[in-house]
Design goal:
Largest sheet: 7 strands, mixed
Oligomer: single chain
Structural class: alpha+beta
Strand order of the largest sheet: 1-2-3-4-5-7-6
CATH architecture of one domain: 3-Layer(aba) Sandwich
CATH superfamily of one domain: Gcn5-related N-acetyltransferase (GNAT)
CATH topology of one domain: Aminopeptidase
Order of helices and strands: EHHEEEHEHEEH
CATH class of one domain: Alpha Beta
Radius of gyration: 18 Å
């Protein structure tokens, strides 16, 4: 059994009761809300959301389409998508890193033996922003990481105006990040991830 299938908080969550047909038989409809790891087939939908969310703010995307496909092929288990009635509305993409702090190489590499999960991007579709979906998705993602035996902490870099958002999600600032993209400077942040054995004893993982 995969780690994902064993986690109840990542299984489909029905936010409303299923509709019934006139004869009382349940219709075959998509779940109102579902969380699952992404696959390479989701890459285009991911990029469309990311492009709209980031280009208007910073002029560039954290991940381009070929990079999204790269990570979803190498480590799909470190991604999480939120789907509503089959449509992607928010997502996180991560990869593994094997050093204490992020470097320029962390933007494109997946270090399979690493114990730090580098969160490359969190984005929410424009039609459902300002609804708390980003915070909810990050909470679910961190809960999922706690059940992965190799994950010890989560790392990310963000622009200074986003620091309060990630602090509310439980991240702490480590200081300026050595990574730069054009004229943009970033703050590096981390969140501890408890070991697999502790979580298995205490949360049913």
């Amino acid at each position: 059994m995969s780690a994902l299938s064993a986690l109840p908080f990542l299984k489909p969550v029905h936010l409303r009761p299923p509709r019934s047909s006139p004869r009382g038989q349940r219709r075959h409809t998509l779940p109102a809300s579902e969380f699952r790891c992404l696959s390479p087939e989701d890459a285009v939908s991911v990029f469309e959301i990311e492009r709209e969310a980031f280009i208007s703010v910073s002029g560039d995307c954290p991940l381009h389409l070929d990079e999204i496909r790269h990570f979803l092929n190498l480590c799909p288990e470190l991604s999480l998508g939120w789907f509503e009635e089959g449509r992607l509305v928010a997502f996180i993409i991560g990869s593994l890193w094997d050093q204490e702090r992020l470097s320029q190489a962390a933007l494109t590499l997946h270090k399979a033996q690493g114990s730090a999960v580098h969160i490359h991007v969190l984005a929410v579709h424009r039609t459902v922003r300002q609804q708390g979906k980003g915070s909810i998705l990050m909470w679910r993602y961190l809960q999922y990481l706690r059940c992965l035996p190799f994950a010890r902490r989560a790392l990310l870099m963000c622009e200074p105006f986003l620091v309060p958002f990630y602090q509310k999600c439980g991240f702490e600032a480590l200081g300026p990040c050595e990574v730069t993209v054009g004229d943009l400077a970033f703050v590096e942040m981390q969140h501890p991830v408890r070991g697999h054995a502790f979580m298995r004893r205490n949360s049913g993982c």
